[in-house]
């Protein structure tokens, strides 16, 4: 079971592997359409089910597994159904889990549906199917069937009706002085510095070097290259090449995310703020943490490492060195996997180009792993100065375990904020972090130990220093919760201050009156004749909280915003459904059509269409008649942001 979960986590953390398996789908579908008369047709949908899997009927018990559900798009308008959807032979079996009889298919399933055409001009019938297949696990799946009456190739058609066109036109602003948005961008601090992400990845790689899965391999691998080469220079070249391949492997693992970027500019932001994905990350990080605590070991199938090792021996040369680097990535997974997961999670929390950030972070991680192999190959005498492996590496893993739980809570908080559950309020979040800090401090002082720990006879200097840092950080959080001090060092990680267990006057940042709908805010700005501070933000946006708590809260910046601007905060990660009357299909100038069904899709598209940006935070100054008053700005320091606001006021005079 542990090995299976480790494999699952490897697929989540290292997404390249998800592109390798495309043919072992549990259900393969075929379809055909049979003409019965000039107005009646029979739709046939056939499923071939993989051995060991089973798929549930439409009529299985509602108290058991999920039934198959067909949605016939256009039913009642362009055609009508004749009776219900018929099924082939099924199996009925009692489920001890749900304590009901379940109806399902094995090997194959056939569904047939007769229809009567109402619109003689129609040529295409679209059918959506939701179904569930199970083996040891159950997987919900979707399938779209497109039937054409004349036998031609069908296509997925999204329509833009008059109502959608009107709502889409309303989403576009007639901005005046639009060119000012991008003027002087090189002097404004914008976005997340990609070198910072590279540095964080590099730091993660350095931490991974200190774990027992990687550290002992450094002298062994370097010695192998230097001793098994006929010339010293050849050994050094091979070791450097080995390091290069390590960097290359981790770089390549980030490339699939760029495929997502090419599909939809907002897709990675949608993924990063998805409630269920954040919950999945929460569970994964908790699972990682307990592996670091020593309750179980995460390992990928040993056959993977054996195959790579055999390939490196058999092939030899440059290709053999590449396979050796792949072997390192596999055998060190139990220690590097959780750290890579943290890197992936941290990248989704950072605003900007997520795929580019991930590439920078993964490359930094690989560079840190490769660095010692290159350095010790050039200066082999340094190997004698390396500390010996020992219990200190176990301590490193346990500390990482506590950090994993802390990061896991951030993902749970994201899901809570975006889902508006109200479970993990700011004080509760910080209270759990304080308990984690106390637990880590007591562990470092040797008060208790974990299963794979050896008895602590004497605390090392490094362990004492780390314990005091942990205690100081815990005390800092306690003082912050009790309002003795602020928590600016943690800005962005805990939930915002207005998300509190105590009643707040406003659910807007810093208690400032704000609008969360652009049209309402614009109407108010016209009424009071004040300019607009347009704030594209997100519930799970770390940098947004940093700006609000570190810059907006400044004694000189705060009154400018509060007294002189109408604040409109648009949340681009809010998954709350729009009223049905406000849902529509938006057509871009390229012809691409996007469904606008929730608040995030509406304001995310609004930002993209009008301001050419998809990152948060993103700030724009507008007059009540939609004149751009200053260049757009993102992350900034206090003086720059203050001057930016004041210049906007001057331009509005």
If you had to describe this structure to a student in words, what would you say it looks like?
The structure is a single chain. This protein has 653 residues and is α+β, with helices and mostly antiparallel strands. It has 20 helices and 16 strands. The chain has helices spanning 2-13, 162-171, 194-209, 217-227, 232-252, 256-263, 267-272, 275-292, 302-315, 317-331, 333-349, 354-378, 391-419, 426-444, 461-481, 518-528, 542-552, 557-564, 599-611, 638-652, and strands at residues 27-35, 40-49, 54-56, 69-73, 79-87, 91-95, 100-106, 108-117, 124-134, 138-148, 514-515, 532-537, 566-571, 584-587, 593-596, 618-622. Strands 3, 4, 6, 7, 9 and 10 form a six-stranded antiparallel beta sheet that branches. The model is unreliable at 1-23, 186-192, 261-265 and 348-352 (pLDDT under 50).
User: pLDDT below 50 for ≥5 consecutive residues: which ranges?
Assistant: 1-23, 186-192, 261-265, 348-352
Spatial gap, N to C terminus = 68 Å
Percent strand equals: 15-25%
User: What is the β-strand count?
Assistant: 16
* Count of DSSP H/I helices: 20
The averaged pLDDT comes out at 77
The radius of gyration computed from the alpha-carbon positions, rounded to a whole number of angstroms, is 29 Å
Shape: globular
The major β-sheet equals: 6 strands, antiparallel
Kindly state the percentage of residues in helix. Answer: 40-55%
Secondary-structure-derived class: alpha+beta
